[in-house]
Amino acid sequence: MGRSRISIGTFGSINTTQNSPRSWTARARFRDPDGVLRPVEASGTTAVVAEQELKVRLAHRIRIVASVSDLHPHSPFPELVRVWLEDLDLDPDQGTKDLYERDIRTLVLPVFEHFVLREITISKVDPLLRTLAA
């Protein structure tokens, strides 16, 4: 009999690995709202520090899952943007995060800010994508 599936919004066991005398990595797999298990890792000078940092990152992901579960077809688009920007905090590349945040706030949000999620259809998104591509 196989292992039971990790529930959405939870993580599996935490494993630590020593990379060098003062470098440790802690890893776990987290099941995101889309059902996909994704690796999450953090580093530190000791196994305990790496594990603590990993738990902080996992706690943040758990909050995002809770936020995502609050979204529904009648949620305003700016609420989805808020949740998505929180998710970007997980990206270690600050430059990428800043670029994505700028683009969502200046290019996408002004177009959809007065819609609820169920109103944002392909027929509304396609013209925006065509304009941005041009």
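That was protein one. Protein two is written in the same sequence-then-structure order:
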Amino acid sequence: MEIILLERVENLGQMGDVVKVRDGFARNFLLPQKKALRSNEANRKVFETQRVDLEARNIERRSDAESVALKMNGRSFIVIRQASEVGLLYGSVSTRDIAETASSDGAHITRNQVRLDKPLKSLGIFKVRIALHPEVDSTIEINIARSLEEAERQVRGENVLAHDDKFADANSENAGGDEKAAEFFDEDDESTDTTSESSAASDKNDA
């Protein structure tokens, strides 16, 4: 379907551009959101008569977005998730999760404004781009951890998996110590058995 853009749309074009998009994308998103009109002679005339108002409205929305970006840029939000010992999440953190977490902390954004190349699937701190306006972006940090304490450690730059590794090493060392102790006692047992046999042989000879 050919459409006329009523505002700049990322990866499509600028206001006034006539572009071809998939029918579903146009019907389900661009047209209902009033970001575009079907491209035909009547709508071209409508666009030209509304162009000045559309540009003025765009400048106003961009100014509002810039104000929000100044407040939001660099903010960090904590997402608590269960994860394996190697830091892989049982599930993932999606655009919806990020939008809900940020909004609950006073930064009102929608999932459509969150830009992720792919869902986040591990512990750590990730930079996430937020499209507040077609011409204005902000960057926030998403701190994914198993607890608030762990999130604070990640902010300090600590490797939250290092403790688990040390714990595993300690267990390994203890296991090694147990094996040595077991060998020691085995040797003692063998010595005891040999002594008993010698005593028994001596008693027999005396007899």
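DSSP finds five helices and nine strands in the chain. Keep this in mind for the problem set.
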